[in-house]
Design goal:
This protein is α+β, with helices and mostly antiparallel strands. The radius of gyration is 19 Å and the shape is globular. It has one domain (3-177). The protein contains 10 helices and 8 strands. It has a 4-stranded mixed β-sheet, sandwiched between helices. Strands 2-3 form a two-stranded antiparallel ribbon. A hairpin with a 2-residue loop joins strand 7 and strand 8. It has helices at 3-15, 37-48, 83-88, 92-96, 102-111, 113-120, 129-135, 150-167, 191-197, 203-213; strands at residues 21-22, 27-29, 59-61, 65-67, 71-76, 172-177, 181-184, 187-190. The two termini are 26 Å apart.
Length: 233
C-alpha cells in the first residue's frame, strides 16, 4: 500500500477527530516460532505450500496500514488473493483466532485470482531467488498448474506468518481487502474504486468504513449526491 494513500486516509480520519496514524515499519524472522507448539503449525503450512528448504530463516516485513491504540488495520491489494493464500487459511491458527475478515478473504482467494495474475506474473513477483530456494522452480509466468509460482507461495507463507505474529499482539489484528464493497448512493462500490478516485464525494464513505474497521464508528454520513440520501449497509 502506497505511503501517500495511507497518509491521505490517516489525514481524512484525523480531520474527523479520530486519532489514527500510519503503522510503523517493523520486521521479524520465522525463527520466532521455532520452539514450542507454534513450530508444528508453521511447519505444517510450509509443507502444504510444498516448501523444500528451511522454513526458519525467512524474513518477514510487517504489513503497512493504519493503527490506533487498540487496532492495527492492513489494507490488502490483489497480490494477496490466490490459491496459495487460500491454503494458508486452512491452518488451525485461524480457527483459534476467528476474525470477521476471514470468510471474505477465503472467497476473494477463489474469485479474484485473475486479478492477482495481472501484476503477479512479473519478474520478481512470480519468482525470485529466495522463493526458488524455498519452493523450487516455477512454471512459466502465468501458468498456475504444476509447480505454479514460487513467489506467490512465499508471499502467502509470509502473509500467514504476519497473521500468526499479529494475532498475538496487544492490538486487534484487522484486515481490509480492496474488494470489500461499500454502499454508496444505493450502489455497492469496491473499496479499490473509491481509493483510486479519492473524490470529495467518496470521502465520507471511506472515512465511515475505515472508522468502523478501526473500532471508532461514526454517524451515518450525509449523501453528497442528494438531500436525505444515506449510505445503506
Amino acid at each position: 500500500m502506497q505511503q501517500s494513500l495511507l497518509q491521505f486516509l490517516a489525514d481524512q480520519l484525523n480531520e474527523q477527530g479520530l486519532p489514527v496514524y500510519i503503522t510503523r515499519p517493523g520486521s521479524f524472522r520465522s525463527s520466532q516460532f521455532k520452539h514450542g507448539k507454534e513450530a508444528s503449525l508453521v511447519e505444517e503450512v510450509y509443507q502444504e505450500l510444498l516448501g523444500k528448504g528451511n522454513c526458519w530463516n525467512i524474513a518477514v516485513s510487517l504489513p503497512e496500514g493504519l493503527e490506533t491504540e487498540k487496532v492495527r488495520l492492513t489494507i490488502d491489494g490483489p497480490l494477496h488473493f490466490n490459491r496459495y493464500r487460500a491454503t494458508t487459511f486452512q491452518s488451525a491458527v485461524y480457527a483459534s483466532n476467528p476474525s470477521k475478515w476471514l470468510e471474505p478473504y477465503r472467497r476473494y482467494c477463489r474469485t479474484a485470482e485473475a486479478e492477482c495474475l495481472k501484476d503477479g506474473r512479473r519478474q520478481g513477483i512470480w519468482t525470485n531467488k529466495e522463493a526458488a530456494l524455498h519452493f523450487g522452480p516455477s512454471q512459466e509466468a502465468g501458468d498456475l498448474y504444476g509447480t505454479g509460482s514460487a513467489g506467490w507461495r512465499l508471499r502467502a507463507f509470509q502473509d500467514f506468518l504476519n497473521d500468526f505474529y499479529l494475532f498475538r499482539a496487544t492490538s486487534l489484528h484487522q484486515r481490509v481487502a480492496v474488494y470489500d464493497r461499500l454502499m454508496v448512493q444505493g450502489r455497492l462500490i469496491p473499496l479499490q474504486q473509491l481509493l483510486q478516485s479519492r473524490s470529495e464525494s467518496s470521502k465520507p464513505y471511506l472515512v465511515k468504513f475505515l472508522a468502523r474497521q478501526l473500532g471508532m464508528p461514526l454517524e451515518q454520513p450525509k449523501d453528497p449526491f442528494g438531500p436525505g440520501s444515506q449510505e445503506k449497509e
